[in-house]
Amino acid sequence: MHPFAYFEPTTLDETVALLARHGRTADLMAGGTDLLVEIKEQIRRPAAVINLKKIPGLADLTCDAATGLRIGALVTVRTIETSAEVQKLYPALAQAARDIGSIQIRTRATIAGNVCRASPSADTLPPLIAYGGRIEMVGPSGPRSIALESFFTGPGKTALADGEIVTALVLPPQPEQAGSDYIKHGRRKAMELATVGVAVALRRDGGVCRDVRIVLGAVAPTPIRARAAEVLLEGSTPDETTIAAAGCAARGESRPISNVRASADYRRAMVDVLTRRAVAAAWERTR
Amino acid sequence: MTSVIGKSVKRTDTLGKVTGGAVYAGDVVLPGMLFGRMKRSTVAHARIASIDVSKALALPGVKAILTHADVPRVLHYGSPHPRSASVTQDQYILDTKVRYWGEGVAAVAATSEEIAELACELITVDYEPLPAVFTVDEALAPAAPKIHDVGPGGNLVLDPFLIKRGDVEKGFAEAELIIEGEYGMGRPTPAYMEPNVCLCQWDPLGKLTIWTSTQSPFMVRGTLAEVLGLPLNKVRVLVDHMGGGFGAKQDLFQHEFLCALLAQRTRRPVRMEFTRKETFLGGRTRHPGTIWLRQGFKRDGTITAREAKIVFNSGAYGSHGPGVTAVATASLTSLYRCENVRLEGRCVYTNTPIAGAFRGYGVVQSYYALDIQMDEVAETLGIDPAELKLKNAVREGDIAPSNHPLTGHGLEDCIRRGIMETGWATRRARGRAPQTGRLKRGWGMGCEMHGSSAYPGIKEQGNAVVRMNEDGSVTLLTGTTGLGTGAHTALAQITAEELGVRFEDVAVVHGDTDVVPWDIGAFASHTTFMAGRACQMAAAQVKAKVLARAADKLEVSAADLEVQDSVITVRGVPGMRLTVREAIAAERGIPAPQLLGEGSYHPTKAYSFGAHFVEVEVDTETGQVSVLQVVPVHEIGKVIHPIAAAGQIEGGIQQGIGHTLSEDYVIDPKDGRSLNASFVDYKMPLAMDMPPIRTIILETAPSDGGPFGAKGVGEDPIIAIGPAIANAIHDAIGVRFRHYPITPEQILAALAEKAGEQAA
């Protein structure tokens, strides 16, 4: 493995100072499940690795119906996957967590790491965005928070400024009669990257759905909202015809590439299928 | 009544493996050890104009660098059967040419892996690119660039392999139905858990010791000795535990030569270990290829003629291309009876990674084609495919691919049992209600047979030395390698059974070419069959010596003695007994006798049989296929260790599901680059993907050639699962696929096409 300087700061201030000192040559490490592999495979060669694990408070998780979900930067994927509260209130996120890697990987990997890695196929991003999540950061000029939807700027690229670190992900409380789902398409059932991932969050208002958010993963440089599909469903009863139209619209909004995992055509077809299935499942859960 | 064989005794290797105590080649650490790395080619076909190693040599910690200018220029076989017909003499350790993207062009030894890696990056290679060919069609084109100077020319690895029996023209003339088709095969790799690794050390007197992950240590010894110009007693090969090989680790790889030479140059031990990526680039794959197959049938399903043309893509070197081509071609004489056959097998060089030996050895490909075509015929003739296959199954007296008459009715037994176990007739599409909804289920079956031993391609020999110690315990010396299959446990069982001692009394010594008897290597489903028989022969000699001594002591005839579980009894004289230990113990100060047995066995051939019955579910919206259940029925003669045999079958099915549905090592047709040389994008099925498997093992056609009637099981289970799945997919959705892997994308496209046809 390529050699690097290694730091274990114990406060956020210290971390921000270290980042200021090392600039872009430093990488932050939470779970390390992506970072260390990338260093070993010489995809990354950081001069410094800053381990965040010694900073108190960053692993805190709060989840309740009244205040919503707050995921500290060191909360592991496994913690989210196995939290009864998250499973109940944010089932699409729990599902996405369950779809990542293996139990061993999930026990080390963090949700914030999955977010900061900004892989177009990352499983937790579609549900986090669908739930209207925000991301909290701190840097040399103090703390700030933005909507996750605008956090991703390209494959591996985010709105995180130089010297900033992510401190938490925050999801708003779920409305009454909320329903959501995440469906991943892969070549096998575990240890797999998404070929396509679709998250849907909505709420039931009598016989129609409201606040529909559909987020597509692995079909664009970043996770994207399928806004035309959302508009079709907003205020409508998600019957078979409407759902089919939404699937078709989402398919049209996707911009996938062809690679060894799947062709662009196949990915588009799967956006259609998975959107229909995820909308139907989300609606079913509002009952 | 047997007391040891047929029982699933506790394997001799499990405790070491679960405690981490088992030593693999990569676990060995020596003082002063250096780390070797290979610089690999970034072009698919080129002459090396120059290599500049000066920057790399200047890097602190770099101890030696080897290029083609520094290594012996000896053309070698790269494979373990020198001068057999199975392999090709077409490799140099390092050549002045590169023939595929990823081939090694230089090697570094340094004080750490990191420095060695960095040094590889600092080596600059000036390539003069040559036109490259990546497909068989490109390689066979008249103006194709020539990849090798050796061989018959035209980029052929060997002259076309031809088999002709009977009168094919007459057979087709008599046919009432003629069916033909072309079948295509992808490029699966064995994906063994343990990447290739070796450690080399020279002693001050010029003797080389190499710890290496190989299936054939004596072949490593022979080839290294030949290339390095050493006598055989100056090369010692050690292999204790292995993390799989699946056939591919029969070859000698570039790093094994280079590691020895780096250790010689630096006078320090050197370890070279492949990264996972290198197991793709520098490993061996199954042969991709196409098989054109044409058969004639009577309306009752009798086969009148069979004609086939096999073309395999060998990649940049021959490796086992000749053997695989011969075995695949010969296999089409059999499985389903046909007196009139004309078969041709070709194997072609391309500028792609090397294909080699891989579990199933050409038969995975040939029976995929044959067994799918049988289903097509069954459909056309309106006969149930299992019944059609049963009708045509080879049986007692039929001439096998090896030109021996077959023994018994193993294949028919497997098919009949599977039909019964699955309630076959009611499971198939025509026996059940039409399915609505997006999920469609179907059943399919496929058959296989495979030889135990590589005879007649290779004249083999299995050896064993059995020694009884003065306390009655037994030491078995065997040259055969344990790939992780439990082979040594089976050999110990056979030895214990024959000798009449307890399983626990037999210890196995293996894995040291200075100590154990010569062995040809662990491959060709022959270890239990061939080495097991040698163990039995050696044990019988020791038993005779023990009983002779016991007879003296008891003052009875040795012919009246029986021994079981280390206790000797006299037939017809209850109560008269002696333990083995007592029989051979020292007496009156005279040491116990030297009790040594030596078995040497030249096998011919036995065939094992199998039929796999499979249920699949196809998601017609996503094209994804789930294998819901598998009922494999195998006839393998006497079973030595039931759980180990079942383990082989389950593992073969897992690999076979991967071959058929997802595994394909993809080479860019534009520049020969590997597109998925990692487990990120080369996907084998894992535990979550595995269906329930109900394994049934039959012992209805034991072999006279194997120990206690045992036959091989190692390769068989990877063969029938493929066509069974393809046939089940057809049963589910009415679409016929004639290639593997069958991807979700292709299923969707085929369904769309079918819907279009129906609408039109």
Mean pLDDT of chain A: 96
Secondary structure tally, helices of chain B: 19
Shape of chain B: globular
Radius of gyration based on Cα positions of chain B: 27 Å
Q: What gross morphology of chain A would you assign?
A: globular
Radius of gyration of chain A: 19 Å
Q: Biggest sheet of chain A, open or closed, and with what strands and sense?
A: 5 strands, antiparallel
Proportion of residues in helical segments of chain B: 25-40%
Number of domains of chain B: 3
CATH superfamily grouping of the largest domain in chain B = Aldehyde oxidase/xanthine dehydrogenase, molybdopterin binding domain
Distance between the termini of chain B: 67 Å
Q: In CATH's first tier, which class of the largest domain in chain B applies?
A: Alpha Beta
Biggest sheet: strand arrangement of chain A: 4-5-10-6-7
CATH architecture of the largest domain in chain A: 2-Layer Sandwich
Alpha-beta content class of chain A: alpha+beta
3D structure, described in words:
The complex is a heterodimer of chains A (287) and B (760). Chain A has 287 residues and is an alpha+beta fold. Chain A folds into 3 domains: 5-51, Uridine Diphospho-n-acetylenolpyruvylglucosamine Reductase, domain 2; 61-171, Uridine Diphospho-n-acetylenolpyruvylglucosamine Reductase, domain 3 (2-Layer Sandwich); 178-285, Enolase-like, domain 1 (2-Layer Sandwich), CATH 3.30.390. Chain A contains 11 helices and 14 strands. Chain A has helices at residues 12-22, 35-40, 77-82, 84-89, 91-98, 103-108, 111-117, 125-130, 227-233, 240-253, 264-285, and strands at 5-7, 26-29, 48-51, 61-64, 68-72, 134-139, 142-147, 152-154, 157-158, 165-171, 178-185, 196-205, 208-217, 224-225. In chain A, helix 9 (227-233) packs antiparallel against helix 10 and helix 10 crosses helix 11 (264-285). The longest helix of chain A has 22 residues, at 264-285. The N and C termini of chain A lie far apart (52 Å). Chain B has 760 residues and is α+β, with helices and mostly antiparallel strands. Chain B has 3 domains: 18-130 and 193-244 and 248-281, Aldehyde oxidase/xanthine dehydrogenase, a/b hammerhead (Aldehyde Oxidoreductase, domain 3); 289-455 and 604-759, Aldehyde Oxidoreductase, domain 4; 461-601, Aldehyde oxidase/xanthine dehydrogenase, molybdopterin binding domain (Aldehyde Oxidoreductase, domain 4). Chain B has 19 helices and 27 strands. Chain B has a 7-stranded mixed beta sheet with strand order 3-5-1-12-9-10-11, sandwiched between helices. In chain B, strands 7-15-14-13-8-27 form a 6-stranded mixed beta sheet, sandwiched between helices. A 4-stranded mixed beta sheet of chain B has the order 16-24-25-26, with helices on both faces. In chain B, a hairpin with a 2-residue loop joins strand 21 (567-570) and strand 22 (573-579). The model of chain B has no long low-confidence stretch (mean pLDDT 96). At the A-B interface, helix 11 of A face helix 19 of B.
